[in-house]
Structures are given as structure tokens and as C-alpha cells.
Amino acid sequence: MTRRLIQLLIGLFLYGIAIALMVRGAIGVAPWDVLTQGIDGHTHLGFGLLTVILSGVVLLFWIPLRQKPGVGTVINALLVGPSVDVGLWLVPAGLDLWLRALLFAAGVLLLAVATGLYIGAHLGPGPRDGLMTGLHRRTGWPIWIVRTGIEGTVLALGWALGGNVGIGTVLFAALVGPLCQWTIPRLALPLPAPRTPAPASLAPAPETPNQFDGDFGKIAPGSALSGPKT
């Protein structure tokens, strides 16, 4: 559990830094970040604080879906926003285009690694991922349709509010799914095998082979994290 908690915290902190790098890239951001930028443009509450607030709002939608949060869900909702602010403080705005392009690319790669770390800790999905899987279970619709519908709605609302939609938004949608498909299984920690009492006359049952099921449910090629997916 200690190792899982440490991996979770590192993953979520890096997730926030990755978002900050993409924001500073200023060539377009992920759909949820477009919404955050749009709201921030009207409220001026700050990107990090709004990230926390939006996470709380999303968790309210878990209630009718009967989605149960884990400790990782709560930490996700509270930690990612402040870590975004740390990244925005470290990286200045208004850089040259070539530097911003590099920042964006680094942000996408780092986000894929961070996703693998935090999901691989098996301590609960993030608020937005849980909304996706909850709707998937309740409606029976394929994950990619649910995710596309959620993020399409969020993107349209954020764009209407003035969020930064650009080539980076398209690149994020095209790249992050395949990258996460690669990082998640490789960074997943093995879960302990369930302990079942064995008859005295028999040798102890062998441990169940490690199998990553992630926070998206069982991931098969071409399903939850492969295209089309953000």
C-alpha cells in the first residue's frame, strides 16, 4: 500500500505539471482544460482552483451513477489543481513558438506517463475517468462513445467561453490514447492475490497471475484506451 500511495502521489503531481506545460504551450489544450480556461477567463479564480472546483462538480454526477470513489479519487480531486499552479509558476508564459511546441509535446508525453502511474496504483479513478466508466456501466454504450460525448460537450462549452482550442487540442485527442495504452500496463503495480483458505491435505494454491485491470475496467486492445479516445 505504501508503494501504491507513493506512486499515486507522484503520478498526480506529474499530471498537474503536464497540464501546465500544455497550457504554457498555448497551441491548444485538452477539452477539460479548455473548459477550465474558459471559466477562468470570466471568473479569474485561477486555473488550479478551478480544476479542483470542477473535480468536485464532476464527483456530484457520480451520485446518480452509483459510482464509488476511492482514496485515489479524492487525492486526485485535491492534488492535480495545486500541482498545475506549481507548473504554471515554474514555466513562464509568452515564449517563442518553437519553445511552446516543445512544451506541449513534453506535456503530452508526461501526461501519458503520469496517467500510467496514477491508474497503475489501483486506488481509484479520477473524477472525470470515473464519470466516463460510470456512464458506460449505466448506459451500456462503448467507452469511446461515452468519452467522445463527454469531452465533445466539454470542449464546445469551453470554446464558447473563450478557452484555447487549437492544433494542440487535435494533437492531444489523437496522441494521448495510444500513449496511455502503452504506459498504463507497463506502470501498473501488481495487486496482491486474494487469500483463500486451502484444504489441509492440499498444497497452497498458486498465486493468481498479475493482470492489470486499471480504473477503466479490463482494457483490451481497441477498447477503452484505443481510438477513438482522448
Architecture overview:
The chain is mainly α and 230 residues long. The two termini are 29 Å apart. The longest helix has 24 residues, at 2-25. The protein has helices spanning 2-25, 31-43, 47-65, 71-90, 97-120, 127-139, 143-160, 167-187. It is globular. Helices cover 66% and strands 0% of the residues. It has 8 helices and no strands.
What level of helicity do the residues show?
55-70%
Please give the count of helices: 8
Tertiary shape: globular
For the CA atoms, what is the radius of gyration?
A: 19 Å
Class computed from helices, strands and strand pairing: mainly alpha
Q: How confident overall, as mean pLDDT?
A: 84
Strand residues, percent = under 5%
Low-confidence region ranges: 207-230
- What is the H/E string? HHHHHHHH
User: Termini, distance in Å?
Assistant: 29 Å
Tally of DSSP β-strands:
0
Largest sheet descriptor: none
